[in-house]
Amino acid sequence: MDSIQYKCVKCGNGNYEEFPVSTTGGFLSKILNMQANKFKAVACTKCGYTELFKGAKAGVGESILDIFTN
């Protein structure tokens, strides 16, 4: 996905920033503060409009490590 050039749908700007976003899933992952869902955010540098693109779910190893590092 890194080779794609994004263009803002709001203002037409071609400059953007990319960054990872992680969120919790269900009830148990919220209690344990496990970041189960991964997304890639692309934000326009001119107007700030941001789109999220779904990534891969965290694996079991990542989830276990996340419990101990929070």
Draw up the topology in text.
Layout: E1 16-23, H1 27-31, E2 37-44, E3 50-54, H2 60-69
Antiparallel strand pairs: 1-2, 2-3
Question: Mean pLDDT across all residues, rounded?
Answer: 74
N-to-C order of helices and strands: EHEEH
Q: How far is the N terminus from the C terminus?
A: 29 Å
Radius of gyration, taken over Cα atoms and rounded to an integer in Å: 15 Å
Described by strand count, sense and barrel closure, the largest sheet is: 3 strands, antiparallel
Extract low-pLDDT stretches: 62-70
Structural class: alpha+beta
Count of the domains: 1
Strand order of the largest sheet: 1-2-3
Principal-axes shape call: elongated
